[in-house]
Design brief:
about 375 residues; alpha/beta; ten-stranded mixed β-sheet; two-stranded antiparallel sheet; 12 strands; about 20% strand; binds adenosine-5'-triphosphate; binds magnesium ion; metal-binding; leucine biosynthesis; amino-acid biosynthesis; IsoCit/isopropylmalate_DH_CS
Length: about 375
């Protein structure tokens, strides 16, 4: 049986706490002989101590091991000599060097978690935002132009190659996921502003072309402004939403808010041969070191990692372990004895992980 090696970068702020919690749960689900986690340094704190954000050894481990599990990176007040923030540069460098072009953000309302959307308490929200992760407006980062203190411009870049690959990712996902839009139809919604900008019209046109290869999946279109209304009013309509980088960033945070917030929202950044898994939240320095963070986003990202590895290596054991982690999280939340603080409860980071481990072992 294959055993897997995962490069683990705990990073900054709450990163180490949520990572430790996740390793506990994944090891409980899978057994220590099937998966080893190799702790690698990096991030803003590491930069302030050593002058390196992403050490060569850490990059090599991320490139050569089977997957990457990341806590979070970024600390206020840690700057490069030119005064710009180090922030989550570790993560951005990995994203670009490993070409992690599809950012997958599941939006799922777990049983027991109250949605701020009153009508949807107890279920009915289960879709995935696929954010293009390497181009779009954010590709202009650092390259925008400030003209004589009077005007600033940035450039939105949409390429055929970049759009085709993320669209294909979204359609493949819609084809195989067991998602549950209200009407049961596999569907990709293309989120853009094709009515205003040529770049978005091109994004939509390329998605349309890719759709030609997926007759079993429905295509649907939504302008980025209108989709914010629909995500609040009828979130149970959605299955997979594909969006340009900045729109994807914005609507995935909105989606997270509708199902309990960043502390329960996982994310995966996936390329053709590498993938990085991390909660959707940042390093939350305000609550770091207090055992107050919710580890659920990272634990659910860990389950996504098991599923991704399972698909790549046709490993049914791993798939089952990923399913079991999700089911254990669901049972703990549904029971309601252990609720993290950001969801209105009292349970700390470590106790949350222990409750999920117990749920895993009780089921055996
Ligand atoms: P980034 O710039 O990296 O996206 P951010 O500025 O958006 O970071 P986050 O670190 O994501 O901010 O968190 C915003 C706030 O949400 C935090 O300050 C914290 O109070 C809360 N928060 C974030 N993650 C968690 C978590 N896992 N558990 C509990 N609270 C959290
Ligand atoms: Mg943020």
């Amino acid at each position: 049986m294959k055993s897997y090696r995962v490069a683990t970068i705990a990073g900054d702020g709450i990163g180490p706490e949520v990572t430790a919690a996740t390793l506990k749960v994944l090891t409980e689900a899978l057994g220590a002989s099937r998966i080893t986690f190799e702790d690698m340094p990096g991030g803003a704190g590491h930069y302030s101590r050593t002058g390196e954000v992403l050490p060569d050894d850490t990059f090599a481990a991320c490139r050569d091991m089977d997957a990457i599990l990341h806590g979070a990176a970024g600390l206020p007040g840690v700057n490069y000599p030119d005064g710009t923030e180090v922030g989550n540069d570790l993560h951005l460098r990995l994203r670009f060097r490993l070409d992690l072009y599809a950012n997958m953000r599941p939006i799922r309302l777990w049983p027991g978690v109250r949605s701020p959307l009153r009508d949807f308490d107890g279920g009915g929200i289960d879709y995935v935002v696929v954010r293009e992760n390497t181009e779009g407006l954010y590709a202009s980062r650092g390259a925008g132009v400030l003209l004589r203190g009077e005007m600033a411009t940035d450039t939105l870049v949409v390429t055929r190659k970049g759009t085709e690959r993320v669209a294909r990712f979204a359609f493949d996902l819609a084809q195989r996921r067991k998602g549950a839009p209200r009407d049961g139809r596999a569907r990709v919604t293309v989120c853009d502003k094709a009515n205003i900008l040529r770049s978005y019209a091109f994004f939509r046109a390329v998605c349309d072309e890719v759709h030609g290869d997926y007759p079993g999946v429905e295509i649907d279109y939504a302008y980025a402004d209108a989709i914010t209304v629909h995500m609040v009013k009828r979130p149970d309509f959605y299955d997979v939403i594909v969006a340009e980088n900045m729109f994807g960033d914005i609507i995935s945070d909105l989606g997270a808010a509708t199902v309990g917030g960043m502390g329960i929202s996982p994310s995966a950044e996936i390329g053709d041969s590498h993938a990085l898994f991390q909660g959707a939240h940042g390093s939350a320095p305000d609550i770091a070191g207090q055992d107050a963070a919710s580890p659920l986003a990272t634990i659910l990202s860990g389950a996504m990692m098991l599923h991704w590895l399972a698909d790549r290596h046709e490993d049914a054991d791993l798939r089952q372990a990923g399913d079991r982690v999700e089911a254990a999280v669901g049972r703990v939340l549904a029971k309601g004895d252990h609720v993290p603080r950001d969801l209105g409860g009292q349970t700390g980071c470590n106790a949350m992980a222990e409750a999920i481990c117990r749920a895993l072992s009780e089921e055996d």
